Amino acid sequence: MKSVKGFTLIELMVTIAVAAILIGIAVPSFRGLIISNRINTQATEIVDALSFARSESIKRNRSVVLCRAATAGATSCTSGSPWVNWVVLAGNEVLRQGTINTFNNSVRVTSTLTNNRVSFRGDGLARNGNAIITGEQRFTVCATSGPEPIRRISFGAASRVSVTRPSGTCS
To answer: What pTM, to 2 d.p., does this model score?
Structure first.
């Protein structure tokens, strides 16, 4: 008698069932990883923008402003919330612009800054208007879902930046 090579229908069905179970377990974890990566990326971009604005103010020995912008190509500051676009300005000169990826409105960024702007003078100290920042100012990057949906970027006058993962949900 000849031996037949290949899979039987039962072997194929068992393999598909095991694969479906593994996929069902992996997809929720993978979704949480994607959300966490998205908010980490946005938090890192804000930290980079703060550091860039501060270093440029020291390098140029003049005032540099990081602020919310109305559009991606805007060359001036706009108040309002949430942050979608930002710009770093030295006087009227645009040093850097950025857009916060909201991932179809699943991520948003807000701040505690007065008029959504922070300025750094040549001494590198952060100011809210003309006054040196007292206390702590924050940016909050928030996802509408996920296991740890919040990243809080905190900084003070000396511009020491920290990123924390507070518990809770987006509000």
So the answer is: 0.81
